[in-house]
Inverse folding.
DNA sequence: TTGTAAGCGTTATCAT
DNA sequence: ATGATAACGCTTACAA
């Protein structure tokens, strides 16, 4: 069954192409009866306006791209997943489709970036949501500006103050530090992967008077690194009695290793994770965590995009971190 | 800075539009020197071929859509997330972009479905990956056929034998049943959400001689439902000594409630989850689970799509379930 | 190897 | 309210 184009379709049903076009574009100026007739016939004959011709003729794209740095390596990226869910629920029923654009850090970054750049500049996307956190994110913002595509960045990006949904990792970490002090802990440790200077600093601030006791362990971002961190701490800093992990997966690994060695949590060591991914409550003990409200952030970012797409202006949004207390601290 | 089109660009650099086009489309017939010159100038002047005009002129779309039923309701859908990761890693560097298309079950399904239908039939997608599991999935396959878009379905769909990457939930559940029998368990329970007749049946088969002792609890698919299931079982079937949960999140809820009530796992009750999501190993006790190898499945599906897009034929793929032993059973 | 020009299927402008 | 037709920006015969 060959596909009908507007010319064939319109001539079959006996109207002009312009009328057919009007029937499908809420442009007013058309008899309601004619409109209904055309819509009905289209269903019958299987006519569908070609989307490329449409986009070409009146420049637009109803596709939003979600760009994010690939940090976690092999494992499923729960962090992005939660953001994506939020974005999707906001976009659902808006008519905007979501495309996901992970980009690797370091090595292959350039190639991917160039691909995305070309794609965006060629008009492929109608909007961009960019998750901050790497040099490439910054480049992508430049691309968005260059292509004059509405965009919103998630997270903190220096120089970008207008189109953002941001949060302050430092503030979240401070909360954790203060909590440890308040609950009488004495020997804190921080377990971090890459890219979290702000978390470290915030933690230090929150720790206040006991900040000079802080031990820092930097491995990777994965489960296994959390476990490694515990073992190393146990060997070199057995006095450690509280730990902030840069993400919940690290915290899970840390707890696992602690339990295997016979340490009890939170009695021997209190642990707080970061991100508050939804599996945090599944753990035993249920993980206390600095919540970034990722789902909410995704939702907000997408709503901002929708506003921009409607031609409205937006104001930057800041989402406060919150310490969620469960059983691990 | 106004955007250049091919006409302007070509006239500025003194060649024809055709030559510019050739420079960007590996069609041969062009002097390598000219080509390099054009590419260079394009970079300098910021010329980018309009993607819509391109797709219009020679029908194509380098976008693949991942369609999946929205089952989990509010919470992040870890199941799909792992598939998506696999798909993405296969697509990366292929030049194919990924669009994600969740569709709600029941109520609003029709609207969403119609939107997607229109989109696909209008030529928006170059390929479709469809996760089976609802009536809408079946409709989407029809759409793919109608639009003559290459597609692959993930999971079991009756009537669809050609373009699939499938697995057999029943087989996986059988494994669990057999294991429980082999390890001397006597009073099995099954905790399921929706849509899992096959799991139930397979489990029953695997249970063999103790299958007549099976208790079935059907609540929802979420964490809380797993916890509820434990409490109900404890009240009504205290003899229960082994449980298969229809997914890992249910299992996590079940375990949590069991621990709170003082039951030990796996001594008092052995529990096996389903899907083997990556957080399974974070739990305490680490969750034994029927692995669907979701990441691998996503990878395979995307590879099949790539083959189809290259004009090659494919043969259906079947992925065997595997029981992953950890500490909960 | 390169240029000319006819599509590709819409939307938008201008008549009617 | 509807119809004719000129863009929209590219690809691809066909000619040179």
């Amino acid at each position: 069954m060959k596909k009908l184009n507007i010319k064939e379709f319109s001539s079959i049903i006996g109207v002009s192409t312009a009328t057919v076009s009007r029937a499908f574009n809420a442009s007013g100026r058309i008899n309601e009866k004619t409109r209904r007739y055309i819509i009905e016939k289209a269903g019958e004959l299987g006519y569908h306006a070609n989307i490329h011709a449409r986009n070409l003729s009146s420049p637009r794209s109803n596709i939003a791209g979600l760009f994010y740095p690939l940090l976690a390596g092999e494992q499923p990226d729960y962090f992005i997943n939660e953001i994506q869910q939020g974005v999707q629920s906001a976009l659902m029923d808006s008519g905007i489709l979501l495309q996901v654009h992970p980009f690797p850090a370091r090595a292959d970054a350039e190639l991917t970036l160039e691909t995305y750049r070309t794609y965006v500049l060629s008009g492929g996307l109608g909007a961009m949501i960019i998750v901050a956190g790497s040099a490439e994110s910054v480049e992508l913002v430049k691309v968005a500006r260059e292509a004059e595509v509405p965009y919103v960045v998630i997270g903190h990006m220096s120089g970008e103050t207008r189109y953002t949904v941001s949060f302050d990792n430092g503030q979240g970490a401070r909360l954790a530090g203060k909590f440890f002090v308040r609950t009488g802990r004495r020997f804190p440790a921080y377990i971090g992967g890459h890219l979290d200077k702000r978390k470290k600093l915030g933690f230090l601030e929150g720790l206040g008077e006991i900040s000079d006791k802080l031990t820092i362990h930097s491995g990777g971002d994965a489960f296994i690194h959390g476990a490694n961190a515990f073992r190393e701490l146990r060997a070199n800093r057995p006095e450690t009695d509280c730990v902030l992990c840069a993400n919940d997966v690290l915290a899970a690994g840390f707890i696992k290793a602690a339990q295997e060695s016979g340490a009890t949590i939170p009695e021997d060591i209190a642990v707080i994770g970061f991100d508050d991914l939804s599996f945090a409550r599944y753990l035993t003990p249920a993980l206390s965590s600095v919540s970034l409200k990722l789902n909410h952030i995704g939702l907000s970012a997408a709503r901002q995009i929708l506003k921009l797409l409607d031609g409205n202006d937006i104001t930057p949004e800041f989402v406060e971190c919150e310490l969620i207390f469960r059983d691990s601290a």
In short: Residues 15-19, 22, 29-31, 34, 53, 55-59 of chain B lie near DNA strand C (CB under 10 Å from a C1'). Chain B has a mean pLDDT of 93.
